[in-house]
From TrEMBL:
Protein name in UniProt: Glycoside hydrolase superfamily
Domain Glycosyl hydrolase family 13 catalytic residue range list: 31-453
Organism placement in taxonomy: Eukaryota, Fungi, Dikarya, Ascomycota, Pezizomycotina
Keyword Hydrolase: yes
CDD domains: AmyAc_SI_OligoGlu_DGase
Keywords per UniProt: Hydrolase, Maltose metabolism
Source organism of this protein record: Pseudomassariella vexata
Single GO molecular function: alpha-amylase activity
């Protein structure tokens, strides 16, 4: 194998020249959960002016595109994922003019802005649903999914199917006035739109998408994108949980028969004409191969999707005991990462890299180690190193860059505000099974969506961590904000924040390897170390390689044979590009010490990198 000594020429990725790539492949996206980011009005609830005031912070971090979670008018049954007016802004967040200003302020900093498009369902308070439920003959009746009741052998009314929804309980709610059930995959407050109806689809394109694209936003994160097409026979799912009236049924309403047609239409009619970027939320995928049709460039559907196999590790499954924690091994974790790193090779599809969002616990609490401040810092940096060396478009979630952790384990259920957490907890209580209640609480402490939704920790010396000057905040501020906050980390070269900044710059500088490179897993069965190779091919046919070696444990581990893994002949051909330790590994006899400290990560390369 050849080791390049000189600076490589323009590198190639697996499928073509990087020079031709769209902007969003090497871009860093940053998700803002607006209720918890920054409050400018002392109401204890974040807002758009608050976000605007921190755009310089994001630009300095290296962010290229802000993804703003829903800010539209909403009763907030599911934190804005229940929209009652797509063209108005929920007053505590601000106004449409504030969003216009946000767009302009992002653009002024060379950043883009994408909004969250929630069009699988609306709120029950949306005018479309109010009209639809007003009578069976309403012109909008068919914009939602209405079905008559069934009756059991005792003559009791039962829902049209036995399907179970996401937030526990059935997917159907009875409407007394019109004597029919309506479908909702999530809360009863979130009725599903009927994408089979042509007028309804046109209204979605026009009133939600074009409205915002015309105002200058750059695209959308698309909520629940593979659930628009349901199986329209509306039949029962097989009984897999005999204890319950409702059954897991994703095969009935996910990846349905017309899903690709609907998404292609959305692309053709709206996304493509505006050159808008799209990243869809794609759940319940059986295999990576099923993901390809959604993100193959030639299929003209979506630019990117989020696939959740890795981030869902540890959960008890989406429709069963989701919050009964299920331990897993590092090799399973690595296997999942590998699957979603390699599945695009040899195709024209693309992938994403992320390990946090508003629907999951904090990564450093789940995958790293928060048992001591040293291990917290080391593991937060190693998780950063892992993320920035993976292929695909990188998405960061607010607070990840300062290593924010889960809510303290002493906090009780009253601090958990999320509809899903509360419903699963209540279901456990209602079962009368105390062990189940304890197990659910244990799972919630690791996995609940609430952990990522507590206020951003800006400043250890300020009221409410600098998130809000109000007397109360909508969720409790973490007790440890004095230790973990942005102010404390700014300018401290050993901090998680400064590490992320350097790491993001490095990712972009060597994007051939990190954003686009081919991924090869090494030491796959190792339960303590996470090791892989990234490779890219230059125009001249040369081969650049990066070896990522991470100690994924609190004990010292031996480093791998770096020369051998990189395919280099001599020690002088190997360069340490980057390391999570402040001064890099110690030198022993002209080489780096073989011992990897707890949660230490290193990146070695086979080429001269110049100053970094
Ligand atoms: C996925 C969103 O990320 C989640 O927060 C929400 O509850 C559901 N979709 C329903 O919109």
């Amino acid at each position: 194998m050849e080791c390049l000594r000189s600076k490589a020429r323009t590198p190639l990725n697996g499928t073509g020249l990087i020079g031709k790539e769209p902007w969003w492949k090497a871009a860093v996206f940053y998700q803002v959960y607006p209720a918890s980011f920054k409050d400018s009005s002392a109401e204890g609830w974040g807002d758009i002016p608050g976000l605007i005031s921190e755009l310089d912070y994001l630009a300095d971090l290296g962010v290229d595109c802000v993804w703003l979670s829903p800010v539209f008018e909403s009763p907030q049954a599911d934190m804005g994922y229940d929209v009652s007016d797509y063209q108005a802004i929920y007053a505590p967040y601000g106004t449409v003019v504030d969003v216009d200003r946000l767009t302009a302020e992002c653009h002024a900093r060379d950043m883009k802005l994408i909004l969250d498009l929630v069009v699988n369902h609306t709120s029950v308070e949306h005018a479309w649903f109010k009209e639809s439920r007003s009578s069976k003959t309403s012109p909008k009746r068919d914009w939602y999914i209405w079905r008559p009741a069934r009756y059991d052998s005792h003559g009791r009314r039962i829902p049209p199917t036995n399907w179970r929804g996401y937030f526990a309980g059935p997917t159907w709610t009875w409407d007394e006035d019109t004597q029919e059930y309506y479908l909702h995959l999530y809360a009863p407050d979130q009725p599903d739109l009927n994408w089979e109806n042509d007028e309804c689809r046109e209204a979605i394109y026009n009133d939600t998408m074009r409205f915002w694209l015309d105002r200058g936003v750059d695209g959308f994160r698309i909520d629940t994108v593979n659930k628009y097409s349901k199986r329209t026979e509306y039949v029962d799912a097989p009984v897999t949980d005999p204890q319950s009236d409702s059954q897991p049924a994703p095969e009935m309403w996910c990846n349905g028969p017309r899903i690709h047609e609907f998404i292609r239409e959305m692309n053709q009619k709206v996304l493509a004409p505006y050159n808008a970027v799209s990243v869809g939320e794609l759940s319940n995928m059986a295999s990576p191969h099923d993901v390809i049709p959604y993100v193959s460039a030639s299929a003209k559907e979506l630019d990117m999707v989020f696939e959740f196999s890795m981030i869902r590790l540890g959960t008890g499954g989406g429709f069963g005991p989701k919050y009964i924690y299920r331990p897993y091994t590092l090799s399973t974790f690595k296997e999942t990462v590998k699957k979603f790193q390699t599945f695009i090779e040899g195709t024209d599809a693309w992938t994403t890299v992320f390990c946090e969002n508003h629907d999951n616990g904090r990564a450093v609490s789940r995958f790293g180690d928060t048992s001591t401040p040293e291990l917290w810092r080391a593991s937060a940096k190693t998780l950063a190193l892992w993320q920035i060396t993976l292929t695909g478009t990188l998405f960061l979630y607010q607070g990840q860059e300062i290593g924010m952790v889960n809510m303290p384990s002493e906090w009780g259920i009253e601090e958990y505000k999320d509809v899903e957490s509360r419903n699963f907890y209540q279901e456990a209580v209602d079962s009368g099974d105390e062990q189940r209640v304890r197990d659910t609480m244990h799972g919630l402490r690791i996995l609940a969506r609430d952990h990522s939704r507590i206020p951003f920790q800006w400043d250890g010396g300020k009221k409410n961590a600098g998130f809000s000057e109000g007397d109360r905040t909508w969720m409790r501020v973490h007790d440890g904000f004095g230790e973990i906050n942005a102010m404390k980390q700014r300018g401290d070269q050993g901090s998680v924040l400064e590490f992320w900044k350097r790491a993001l710059r490095l990712r972009k500088r060597f994007k051939d390897l990190f954003v686009h490179g081919r991924f090869t897993a090494l030491e796959e069965g190792d339960e303590k170390r996470f090791v892989y190779l990234k490779e890219s091919t230059t125009e001249s046919g040369g081969n650049r390689r990066a070896l990522v070696v991470m100690n994924w444990s609190k004990e010292v581990q031996k480093c791998v044979d770096v020369k051998k893994s990189l395919g280099c002949e001599g020690a002088d051909e190997v360069r340490l590009l980057f390391s999570t330790t402040d001064r890099g590994p110690k030198m022993v006899g002209g080489e780096h010490e073989a011992a990897l400290r707890p949660w230490e990560g290193r990146v070695y390369v086979n080429f001269e990198a110049g100053d970094i």
